[in-house]
Automatic annotation (TrEMBL):
Catalytic machinery residues: E182
Species for this entry: Petromyzon marinus (Sea lamprey)
Keyword Hydrolase: yes
Free-text remark on how the cofactor is bound: Binds 1 zinc ion per subunit.
Entry's family note: Belongs to the peptidase M8 family.
EC number: 3.4.24.-
Residues annotated as binding Zn(2+): H181, H185
Protein name: Leishmanolysin-like peptidase
Cofactor(s), by name: Zn(2+)
GO molecular function term, any single one: metalloendopeptidase activity
Amino acid sequence: QRLRVRLIYDSSVDSLPNEKRDFIKMRLFPEAVDYIQSALFVRSPGAKILLNRYCATNHYFMKHRDPHRYCQSACAETTRCGPVTVPDEHLQQCRVCDEGGRNCGSIGPAGGPGEPDADYVLYVSALGTDRCQQEGVVAYAAYCQLEAQLDRPIAGYANLCPDKVSLDAGEQPDMLSTVKHEVIHALGFSAGLFAFYRDDDGQPLTPRYGNGLPPFNDTTGLYQWSERVARRVSRRWAVRGGELSHLVTLLVTPRVVVRSR
């Protein structure tokens, strides 16, 4: 079925001047998401979206044949998706183990109702963060959490730099293009997720260890994808006076290869 994206606006968007707020909520993000929803199809998990809570110590345990994450000793008071605080109604119940990874169970209030009838939750904010001070940065986005069965992103964020939101009619097409680009990153087109890509049958394109994770590359700080996902190849480029060799990275997943051919 077509991808269903649920937009959740942070209070920072509602704090903007009315014209900017209305442009973001009534035009910019609805149009960007409509475009993406019309282009992408998913196998719906059929369950409401509930996110894992952050852990107080940043350490957690995984149990065999259990998709849930168990924090060491305690869950954090606040769970964030990028710069946005995730509301309690979108969070699972806190699950913890003792420091040795034993005596595991659920504690505290029950999980929230979650987001039904959605395949992805996108938290939208308009915060003047440090990253917004960088030249040329209008917006940025990323995924936050993956579902356990197929490693598919189910939540992400997009932050618009409030001082760079333009209401000028001539600049709005560029704003829309930027938001589409960033939302696609949040949906999983990111080097950080290449190693988690799967084929049409749901099988990993990169071999996994016994813990379910692909190998980690300490140099790049990313999980290392296999050559079934992306390859570095040398291309000959024609330049004035001759040719030169140029290394490029090609995405070579089965679907990309079929479409390219």
